[in-house]
Amino acid sequence: MDTARFLTGQFLLAMPGIGDPRFERAVIAMCAHDENGAVGVGLGAVVDGLGFHDLLEQLEIEPGDTPDAPVHFGGPVETRRGFVLHTRDWSGQDTIDVAGRWALSGTVDVLRAIAEGDGPRRWVIALGYAGWGSGQLEAELARPGWLNVEGATDLIYATPAERRWAAGLAMAGVDARLLVGGAGTA
């Protein structure tokens, strides 16, 4: 398999004028990408009025001393399904390593571990994901709309959601203030 052409462990950034309001200013952590398709978790927007403690309460898990944290809009697919992107210092029954950069877990065991203080050192929670079928992402990347950048973990853990898009663009040497949503005519 030619892994150089796949984006696992990188970020997809939506360019202005992408044409889909669900992905406006999106920052997607690419968790899997191969010839069969792609899966990513959005980290560029949070779900208003929903925090980590709210999720724990719904699952009847005591939060303990765990700080409350925002829950991100992971994408338009399975929006009631939760995912945790986290440091690689913890692993559960379904945890996958993402290109040696971060890990992804999607079962309640990671939430329990975080609440008990035995989970990963750093983590971000999202509901839903972005998914592409075989060849679909490659077709989208052939048109203007997405920019991929290397997967620096600071973008996940050290940058607030509202600043991730501009920070991701800056990693690629692009000043977000200079981007426009359409092309001009001469």
From TrEMBL:
Pfam families: DUF179
InterPro entries xrefs: AlgH-like
GO-annotated cellular components: cytosol
Source taxon at top rank: Bacteria
Gene3D superfamilies in UniProt: VC0467-like
PANTHER family linked to this entry: UNCHARACTERIZED PROTEIN YQGE, UPF0301 PROTEIN YQGE
Family label: Belongs to the UPF0301 (AlgH) family.
Protein name, as recorded: UPF0301 protein CKY28_01705
Organism: Sphingomonas lenta
